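[SOLVED] Need 3D model of a two-part complex

Original post:
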Amino acid sequence: MIEFRNVGKRYPSGHAALNEVSFILARGEMAFLTGHSGAGKSTLLKLIALIERPSSGELIVNERNLNRLERGHIPYHRRGLGMIFQDYRLLQDRTVFDNVALPLVIGGEYDQRETGRRVRAALDKVGLLGKEKYYPLELSGGEQQRVGIARAVVHKPVLLLADEPTGNLDPDLSREIMALFEAFQRVGVTVLIASHDHDLIARMNHRVLTLQHGSLINTVAEAPAS
Amino acid sequence: MKRRDGQGQESEAARAAPRKTGPRQRGLENYLTHHLRALFASLGQLVRTPLATLMIAAVIGIALALPAGFHALLASVQTVAAGWEGDMAQISLFLKPTIKEDQAAALAKRLRGMREVTAVRYISPQQALAEFELSSGLRDALAYLNENPLPAVLVVRPAEQYSTPSAARDLLHRLEAMTEVDSAQLDLAWLERLHAMVGLAVRGVWLLAGVLAVGVLLVVGNTIRLGIQNRREEIVVIKLLGATDGFIRRPFVYGGMWYGLFGGVIALLVVNGLLLSLAGPAQQLAALYHSGFRLELLGGLACVIVLGAGAALGWLGAWLAVSRHLRDVEPV
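Solution:
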């Protein structure tokens, strides 16, 4: 699903965020991306979402070589992804329903009835079915992140990317959110989560990719899936 | 822009084919629905901030009202000037002294037969002398003359479409060449001056309209630029969710179109309001000068042009602004 081949990223300022990073994430796999702040976690996720372009090496996502993808095709690439952010990035002036419906409205594939059906299905999955008419600020942090997750999965993406999804949540809520990600992995979605919450990662049996100063130092599974 | 969007969605549809079974027509329908929704959503956005919208629309409205108002005034002047042309374009044919009265009458008849001519009046030498005596006050001096020195005159009124300076001059040359005619005279200077003035004014109004159109583009462009800045976060989010440039551009471009259309409505209200309030006094003044001058309101076609120009300029200004600034708003 994701293949990094000697990928490097150097910013115009000269700062090298990633060095010769190579790894393969198989379809349906779930992995954590960890490392200190500034180790390159966010940069790596940005390369996958084409928010940034690699400076060297090759990057293949969803059988598409991103190096050769033109600017005009970036939106269509992103529609195959579901992205979850530490600060949720919800639109405050729109209801929960409208926020979750956004990827479908952008995709423009479904009529209003089908959109409503899919949005409610996604909200049901994250346990927020009764809150579709609320505005994001009327919800707690954990609920807002679940809205973010519903928005990320409503269009059934093949790949979920999460950047510190539990960074602003307490441990109980974090476990709930992680359980949600595992549920999506079980139905075949590939999941990559950037996090520096070592306790949480250690408690879950998934592959861990560790970045240090922009290089991958450990790509073996900490505890192979049982 | 719209077509590229449509193609994009089609190619996306082709790529994600296994997930979707809907026929192509369904896609087009959703696409149009989306456009309509963006159209009215942008309208709703403007209505939610009525005062700000009204102020921007008023600026556009005044910019459109100036050329539209001058155009209306000029149209009124031109109507009157066209009326004057018929009265003023007169060709006086001074006949040779050897021409007898019946020959003159025959010539007058021939001239009346020409399609360039509406009327011919015959002034005999005696009539001319009597008129001259009356108007000059030289009755006693004239009494000393042995014979009437004045020639017979045919006063020719050209038909309306031959009353313009150049056409009247052509006619003059042709009439002057006739054997019975000694000399011919056409007083055109006044007419030509009027034509030149109206022509200059028309050009001036067009130039003014051009300058103000650029002004409208800048006003709308700046408004949309601020809108983009205010909604930066929203734009970033929907870009991350896979929105195309066309999708993001759409509400702004429709918003600009609405601004322009509202501006056009305000321009029409302003211009017609001013014309209505001036019409009474203008008519009184014209009546004092025995003129048929009347202020005409902007007609149906002019209204459509003002509204269309407003909407088109708003659309274009927004499009330029969004195209210019959208690339600056990228997710980081």
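Edit: The beta strands of chain B are 91-95, 117-123, 153-158, 181-186.
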